């Protein structure tokens, strides 16, 4: 369905002195039709950047994205725009996705206008996401967080996409509202066989929505599989799961991710790892597949 091969994104910043950070570092990822891959990791680990790479919102420094057999990085502007209909982003801040000066109606019908589609049914979209007709004339600031996220979902669903990046879509909502939005996203997925990259830093949420899980640390996927949360084996995942068992939220364990975004030779988790050896400082371990289909990036398992 969608596949990222050897994806990297290096950001450069600074005017006099150029700094480089590797936000995404040689990631391979694939999501099947109807599947939710849950991408878990602390703030700054590169989750949103990876999501934007898959949606071809930003260009990779290396690597490519293949969507339904088509290499997105080889497409021209108008070809890419056509494919973009099938790929959508549901962002963390719903207000960032809607123009504050537009009514909800205008925001929801905008995708139809951009793609010159005349034959659309807005009532169907409203019903699908659980909004009422009188929401249409209102402005974003007149809606609650949950209603706003429903409007964003309606807009994202307008063109009947196949792949959606849900980037922490409920993290700004009250817990009571969270559950209903998650239910809506799961329902829509089942009805339409959608593929989701679901980004979250909350393990509770991950367990509800995820079919498969990938853990990101300093721009790399360090562990991937079906039972990552029940049976973590990478030292970083173990740390995450253990610390979060107390309050169920992936804490900022302040492992100085930023420093580890530099180009370094060995394992990026080396300095914090309780099991590290000399080899870990010198060689970056590859992500290898174990017998039980789980993938892990650690010298202990090679
Ligand atoms: N446009 C940008 N320019 C420079 N650095 C960026 C940009 N976007 C993200 N970064 C940096 O890349 C790293 C990964 O960011 P991000 O993908 O947003 O992580 P996450 O979503 O996991 O919090 C962070 O250190 C962030 O500061
Ligand atoms: Mg993010």
Please, could you describe this protein's structure?
This protein is of the alpha/beta class and 302 residues long. It has two domains: 2-86 and 162-301, P-loop containing nucleotide triphosphate hydrolases (Rossmann fold, 3-Layer(aba) Sandwich), CATH 3.40.50; 101-160, no CATH class. The mean pLDDT is 90. It has an eight-stranded mixed sheet, sandwiched between helices. It has a four-stranded antiparallel sheet with strand order 2-1-4-5. α4 runs parallel beside α6 (145-157) and α5 packs across α6 (145-157). The protein is built from eleven helices and twelve strands. It binds adenosine-5'-diphosphate and magnesium ion.
Annotation keywords:
302 residues, alpha/beta, Rossmann fold, 4-stranded antiparallel beta sheet, 12 strands, binds adenosine-5'-diphosphate, binds magnesium ion
Query: Which percent range describes the beta-strand content?
Result: 15-25%
CATH architectural grouping of the largest domain: 3-Layer(aba) Sandwich
Structural class: alpha/beta
Helix content: 25-40%
Q: Output the CATH homologous superfamily of the largest domain.
A: P-loop containing nucleotide triphosphate hydrolases
